[in-house]
Amino acid sequence: MKLKFILVISLMTVILYGCNKDEVKDMPANAPADQNGTQQTGDTPTDQVTFNFLEFSLDVDYSETESYEVEYEDKKTGIEAKLEDDRKNEKLQGDEAYTKLEPLFKQLNFDSTTPNDEVIDQVIKVFNIEDNYQSIEVDVEFVDGNEKEFKRIK
After folding, report:
1. In the beta sheet, which residues pair with residue 141?
2. 96 falls in which pLDDT band (50, 70, 90)?
3. pLDDT score, position 76
4. How far apart are CA 6 and CA 8, in angstroms?
5. Inter-residue contact 84 to 69 (CB < 8 Å)
6. What DSSP line would sit under the chain, residue for residue?
7. Cα(57)–Cα(149) distance, integer angstroms
8. What is the pLDDT of residues 136-150, one digit of tens each?
């Protein structure tokens, strides 16, 4: 009986550790903070976000085996970030991914009312997407609560 209990606890520990690998641990100095200098945990989305979106997902397909993917979520429990670039054999998570993505996200200035083509053109420029892509898909949840999907297929 004790062996089963130990195995279950060990398995749960491994699973919980794996779930947190994408979480950003070292918040940047310019992240929102309250008067005490700690990260904000306000009840409204605009109280705690760094960008004009809470979630950002980018999927660029170059071929069946080559893609460029970005995942970003700003949750009340923290920020999660992930970047995968098959062409450069680069896979970043957590702090490493956020450090690379933050300056790119700061250059994005579209909102939920921006037309599809303008958003895609901006993403291509900011993320330096090569022209030989097959498709681009951007999914965004904005701080105003709107969720939008932007797509371009060649």
Report:
1. 55, 147
2. very high
3. 80
4. 5
5. yes
6. -HHHHHHHHHHHHHHHHHHTTTB--S--TTS-B-TTSSBP--SSGGGT-SSSEEEEEEEEESSSS-EEEEEEEEETTEEEEEEEETTTTEEEEHHHHHHHHHHHHHH----TTS-HHHHHHHHHHHTT--TT-SEEEEEEEETTS-EEEEEEE-
7. 9
8. 999 999 998 999 999
Write the CA distances from 117 to 65, 104, 113, 137, integer angstroms. 26, 19, 12, 12
Asked if residue 33 has pLDDT above 90, the reply is no
What does pLDDT average to over the chain?
79
In sequence order, the 6+-apart residues with CB closer than 8 A to the CB of 18 are none
Q: What is the pLDDT of residue 130?
A: 93
Residue type, 76: K
**Mean pLDDT, residues 148-153 taken together:** 96
Q: Does the pLDDT value for residue 15 go beyond 60?
A: no
Handedness of CA 107, 97, 60, 137 (dihedral sign): negative
Q: Which amino acid is located at 66 in the chain? A: E
SS3 string, 111-122, reads CCCCCHHHHHHH
